[in-house]
């Protein structure tokens, strides 16, 4: 998606052309039309309050005879003209960059966890910048091998990495975010991986963000940040924007430090009919993880199970995008992009073969392995979209036609080194690294889509949409010793959508929708799908039996509205059913990296969302509740030797109705803002997340039971010393709660004195991904025009 400029007086097809004003710069544009009711005055605290739904977007500034803003949502990867929210059949949520800035979160995932409806996070890797984001029970994760159910876009470019569809949240430039839009359901126009929703990020531009600032902060765990922003206009047609930041963080636990370096820039040309934008960005990040730790290690919550475990992420990207109005009713938009991504992963692992008898009769006494994998991906592609605003049977109609092509070449190498453990569980290598895998993959994804919104009258409208996806993955062995790795896989499907909206008054909207989506098996899943030849996740590739694509089908009904000038609300009920869902099945217990991917039949995520926001003088309140019932709908057998209910062969039977691990049923979030004075704002986030089952307990029968839920309180405050100087402070986990966001069943090899290696006396335990203890940070920002 992209910023949009349009001539004054060009009308949206659904509203009168007179007295129309567009505010540009994101996935969401505000339109004020003089034919509508009275304006809503902004409150003193509204800038710091987090929206919980798109219907709760902050109003335009009050002017003489100004009127309420109309939210326009991009419901396709390229914004184009957009669609008024009143005609969007989905519980869309929007987050402005200024809302994120007001709370000064450490990461985007921190903000999501505290503010966004139906979102929770887990810390499976033990690093805050590598958290999984779960929305409605679907995941966008940086961990290779995790089934990805959300598509993520940055300025219209899909940033699910082609190799594994992972999402590296640390590579998205947080300071450059103008708006994030979360579109729920299986909206087919967003293409592959949109099983449970799409996360659409748009960046700032210099015309909407003139001036600059520098910011610095420091505090707990040795965390220090520095950031600069600058935007402006050159002449009458050019504008520019640039930001760069540096973060050094020692980490709250041992061996989970982070170093982040990000930069982003944009140059735009705009005139009455045309916008052309060239943006580029880069990041160079080193993220250490402390992994999950067994419950017997909780005497010291800061220790790592084994180490080192490091992800080095580098990216550079270039995006050229533009749109042009041939006349007020015809717009053409498009983009071209190139992206270079490199990931180097170093993992310390217990040797899966320790204690087994080798072919020569010897006992394998190698304690550990150091695994190194490198992924280098060059991806490129483009999209083209035509928007036609016309009349159909004398009624307003908007037709969007689009096509997209995405291509990627990836090179994957992996090597393994024998090692032993020190008393502190660090691995020390024995000899050199031995190559295990050398493979190249080629991904081709084509998509053709349409979306048509027809207004029967002022109260009723219908949306029809669909997309045909064609996906091809070619895998080639480069080592010459793994011929079974070679494979050529093609998947295709047409996914439809239909929705209805009813707007009896400007203050109320009800809707119902049905849509379908698709996820193609990734290269790593296709090359690790043989139960007879399990591979080491995420390192080895072995063979490629066929896997089926995952198909999602979503029903949703909901409503949203406004009460008076200060209160907004939204509600939704949904059900998403997956066919041929894919899961990693461990061959030696849930915590083992050895296993394979398989289609496990049907799964379902269904639930309820309630959200509201209001303003009482200087106090702003936003609250939400979400319920997610995520269950398996098929019966299948899994190897889970660490599960106490496993049979003599180490297998468990998962039945229809068993809950999917890692997905909490209940989450509650409250955001309070108090404008103590015109210069001073105090905010707090109260969040509750319910209990979850551990991975490996897919049958919900393990004696360890669930990982308990938790309640957190975060604080933030800002004080504007002058118009240019602002100071701020944040406190995370005010009550210093000890909690866990993730769990997995596994075999603990460290039962010797002081948790040293003892492979002869292993114990099955519940391993936990721990949340961070209390931390506090202070900072200041100096701005100029």
UniProtKB/TrEMBL annotation:
Location(s) in or outside the cell: Cell outer membrane
Membrane topology label: Multi-pass membrane protein
GO biological process: siderophore transmembrane transport
Signal peptide: 1-37
Record domain TonB-dependent receptor plug: where: 85-198
Keywords associated with the record: Cell outer membrane, Membrane, Receptor, Signal, TonB box, Transmembrane, Transmembrane beta strand, Transport
One Pfam family named in its UniProt record: Plug
One term of GO molecular function: siderophore uptake transmembrane transporter activity
Domain TonB-dependent receptor-like beta-barrel: 269-734
Stored PROSITE patterns: TONB_DEPENDENT_REC_3 (PS52016)
GO CC list: cell outer membrane
Entry similarity comment: Belongs to the TonB-dependent receptor family.
Name listed for the protein in its UniProt record: TonB-dependent receptor
């Amino acid at each position: 998606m992209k910023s949009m400029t349009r001539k004054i007086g060009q009308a949206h097809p659904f509203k009168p052309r007179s007295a129309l004003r567009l505010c540009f710069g994101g996935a969401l544009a505000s339109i004020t039309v003089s034919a509508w009711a009275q304006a809503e005055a902004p409150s003193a605290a509204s800038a710091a309050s987090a929206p919980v739904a798109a219907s709760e977007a902050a109003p335009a500034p009050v002017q003489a005879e100004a009127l309420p803003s109309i939210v326009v949502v991009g419901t396709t990867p390229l914004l184009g003209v957009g669609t008024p929210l009143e005609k969007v059949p989905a519980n869309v949520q929007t987050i402005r960059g200024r809302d994120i800035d007001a709370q000064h979160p450490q990461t985007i995932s921190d903000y999501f966890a505290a503010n966004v409806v139906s979102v929770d996070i887990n810390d499976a890797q033990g690093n805050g910048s590598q958290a999984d984001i779960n929305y409605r029970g679907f995941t966008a994760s940086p961990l290779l091998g995790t089934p990805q159910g959300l598509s993520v876009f940055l300025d219209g470019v899909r940033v699910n990495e082609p190799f594994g569809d992972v999402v590296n949240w640390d590579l998205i430039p947080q300071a450059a975010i103008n708006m994030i839009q979360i579109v729920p359901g299986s909206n087919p126009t967003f293409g592959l991986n949109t099983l449970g929703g799409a996360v659409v990020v748009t960046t700032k531009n210099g015309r909407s963000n003139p001036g600059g600032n520098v910011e610095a902060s420091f505090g707990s765990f040795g965390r220090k940040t520095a950031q600069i922003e600058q935007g402006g206009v050159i002449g009458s047609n050019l504008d520019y924007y640039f930001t760069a930041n540096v973060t050094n963080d020692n980490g709250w636990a041992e061996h989970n430090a982070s170093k982040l370096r990000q930069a982003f820039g944009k140059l735009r040309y705009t005139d009455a009919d045309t916008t052309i934008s060239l943006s580029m960005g880069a990041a160079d990040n080193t993220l250490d993880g402390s992994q999950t730790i067994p419950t017997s290690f909780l005497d010291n919550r800061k220790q790592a199970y084994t180490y080192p475990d490091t992800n080095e992420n580098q990216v550079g990207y270039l995006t050229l995008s533009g749109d042009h109005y041939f006349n007020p009713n015809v717009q053409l938009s498009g983009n071209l992009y190139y992206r270079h991504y490199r990931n180097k992963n170093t993992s310390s692992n217990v040797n899966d073969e320790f204690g087994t008898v080798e072919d020569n009769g010897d006992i394998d006494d190698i304690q550990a392995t150091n695994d190194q994998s490198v992924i280098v991906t060059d991806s490129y592609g483009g999209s083209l979209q035509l928007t036609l605003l016309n009349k159909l049977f004398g009624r307003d109609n908007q037709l969007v036609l689009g096509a997209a092509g995405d291509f990627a070449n990836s090179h994957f190498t992996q090597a393994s080194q024998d090692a032993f453990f020190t008393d502190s569980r660090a691995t020390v290598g024995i000899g050199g690294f031995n190559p295990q895998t050398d493979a190249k993959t080629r991904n081709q994804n084509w998509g053709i889509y349409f979306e048509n919104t027809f207004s029967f009258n002022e109260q009723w409208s219908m949306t029809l949409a669909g997309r045909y996806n064609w996906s091809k993955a070619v895998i080639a062995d480069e080592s010459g010793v793994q011929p079974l790795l070679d494979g050529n896989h093609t998947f295709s499907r047409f996914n439809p959508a239909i929705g209805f909206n009813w707007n009896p008054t400007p203050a109320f909207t009800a809707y119902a929708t049905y849509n379908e989506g698709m996820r193609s098996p990734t290269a790593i899943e296709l090359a690790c799908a043989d139960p007879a030849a399990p591979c080491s996740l995420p390192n080895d590739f072995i063979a490629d039996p066929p896997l089926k694509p995952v198909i999602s089908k979503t029903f949703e009904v909901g409503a949203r509205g406004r009460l008076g000038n200060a209160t907004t609300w939204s509600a939704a009920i949904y059900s998403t059913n997956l066919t041929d869902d894919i899961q990693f099945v461990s061959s030696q217990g849930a915590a083992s990296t050895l296993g394979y991917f398989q289609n496990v039949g049907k799964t379902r995520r269904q639930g309820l969302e309630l959200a509201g926001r209001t303003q009482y003088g200087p106090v702003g309140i936003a609250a939400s509740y979400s319920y997610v019932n995520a269950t398996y709908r098929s019966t299948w057998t899994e190897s889970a030797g660490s599960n106490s209910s496993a049979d003599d062969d180490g297998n468990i039977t998962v039945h229809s109705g068993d809950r999917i691990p890692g997905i909490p049923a209940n989450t509650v979030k409250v955001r309070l803002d108090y404008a103590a004075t015109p210069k001073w704002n105090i905010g707090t986030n109260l969040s509750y997340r319910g209990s979850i089952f551990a991975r490996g307990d897919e049958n919900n029968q393990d004696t360890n039971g669930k990982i308990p839920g938790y309640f957190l309180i975060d604080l933030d405050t800002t004080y504007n010393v002058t118009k240019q100087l602002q100071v701020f402070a944040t406190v995370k986990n005010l009550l210093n709660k000890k909690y866990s966001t993730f769990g997995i069943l596994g075999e603990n090899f460290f039962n010797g004195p002081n948790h040293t290696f003892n492979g002869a006396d292993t114990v099955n335990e519940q391993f936990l991904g721990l949340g961070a203890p209390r931390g506090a940070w202070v900072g200041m920002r100096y701005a100029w025009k």
